[in-house]
């Protein structure tokens, strides 16, 4: 349940945060692409409400296609691209198409809905070295972002800093507060934009929201750490979803780390990593991979071996894909590009049942 108060607070917090960079770069108004679904909090808040509030021109695309997207960027001289990681990956894999359009107007690329892996960032900056890259971090339950990158303080690998009016706390598995840099824990957030709770679901509300002597907080379910940027400012780095971390013999493996690495391999067009049961390690990482066009011409066994080798040559042993590699036509995702791991976990569970495995 998101109140009008939550929406107004979210708009004012983000507007105040952005105003510093906009002033520094001489931007009063700009054209923004209405590319993301307005039914999702990213498109609804950061494009529709925020854009209207500050007087931006919003170019609404009836439906997304890669060519329509590129054509709009070129035609309307889009300066800031607010998109999701799957579109970034599509840009990297279709450079022959991108080169047919004038993207010189782009100065700042802002992504949200899912983390952007370091390898993807490196590839993007290699092709577009003049672009400044930023990320936002938020939830539907918080009326969009509470952490985001400032255009004048970008720090590759981070999702930015707290917006005005928001407070953060990082806790370990026992609920103890973490105050050291580079130490991961679950992120708790307090903000005027935090929603009222879940409609007609008191159990979920009590599990996600709580009140203590310092006020009302939301458990984000995300593991983060704080890192000092070269500017001296504190930035948040998202490690992974707490519930999605893979526990291998006591080690924690972040699916997002493996996914970002896999996407650097020429055989991989898209991918997702989940945990599967392992009799010795407890859990093991398993990769679902969409093969690139070049990989489709090769024997599947060879492609599988190449992918395993790619991980084993660069990652610690407990991060190896002991759960296997399975090829799939498409990775299930939400309209905003978030990987729907639950669908892959259910698919994998059904496959184990069919093989007679005990659950």
From TrEMBL:
Annotated transmembrane regions: none
Domain AMP-dependent synthetase/ligase as annotated: residue spans: 1-199
Protein origin, superkingdom: Eukaryota
Family statement: Belongs to the ATP-dependent AMP-binding enzyme family.
GO terms, molecular function: CoA-ligase activity
Domain AMP-binding enzyme C-terminal span(s) in chain numbering: 257-338
Protein name (record): Uncharacterized protein
InterPro entries hit by this protein: AMP-bd_C, AMP-bd_C_sf, AMP-dep_synth/lig_dom
């Amino acid at each position: 349940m998101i109140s009008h108060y939550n929406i107004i607070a979210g708009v004012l917090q983000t507007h105040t945060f952005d105003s510093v960079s906009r002033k520094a770069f001489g931007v009063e108004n700009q054209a923004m692409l209405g590319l993301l679904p307005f039914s999702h909090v990213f498109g609804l808040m950061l494009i529709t409400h925020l854009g209207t509030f500050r007087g931006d021109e919003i170019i609404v695309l009836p439906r997304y296609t890669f060519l329509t997207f590129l054509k709009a960027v070129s035609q309307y001289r889009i300066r800031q691209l607010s998109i999701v990681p799957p579109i970034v990956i599509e840009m990297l894999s279709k450079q022959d198409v991108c080169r047919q359009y004038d993207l010189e107007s782009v100065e700042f690329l802002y992504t949200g809905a899912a983390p952007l892996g370091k390898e993807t960032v490196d590839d993007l900056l290699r092709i577009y070295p003049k672009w400044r890259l930023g990320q936002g971090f938020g939830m539907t339950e918080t009326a969009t972002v509470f952490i985001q990158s400032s255009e004048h303080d970008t720090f590759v690998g981070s999702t930015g800093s707290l917006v005005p009016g928001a407070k953060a706390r990082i806790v370990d598995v026992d609920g103890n507060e973490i105050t050291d840099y580079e130490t991961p824990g679950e992120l708790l957030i307090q903000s005027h934009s935090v929603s009222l709770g879940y409609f007609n679901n008191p159990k979920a509300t009590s599990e996600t929201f709580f009140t203590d002597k310092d006020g009302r907080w939301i458990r984000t379910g995300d593991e983060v750490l704080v890192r000092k940027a070269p500017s001296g400012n504190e930035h948040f780095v998202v490690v992974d979803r707490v519930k999605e971390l893979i526990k291998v013999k006591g080690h924690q493996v972040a699916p997002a780390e493996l996914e970002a690495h896999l996407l650097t391999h020429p055989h991989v067009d898209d991918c997702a990593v989940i945990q599967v049961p392992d009799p010795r390690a407890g859990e093991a990482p398993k990769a679902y991979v969409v093969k690139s066009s070049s990989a489709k011409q090769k024997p599947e066994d060879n492609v599988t071996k190449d992918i395993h080798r790619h991980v084993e040559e660069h990652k610690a042993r407990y991060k190896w894909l002991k759960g296997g590699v399975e090829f799939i036509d498409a990775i299930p995702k939400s309209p905003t590009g978030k990987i729907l791991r639950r669908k892959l976990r259910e698919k994998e569970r059904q496959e184990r049942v069919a093989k007679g495995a005990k659950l």
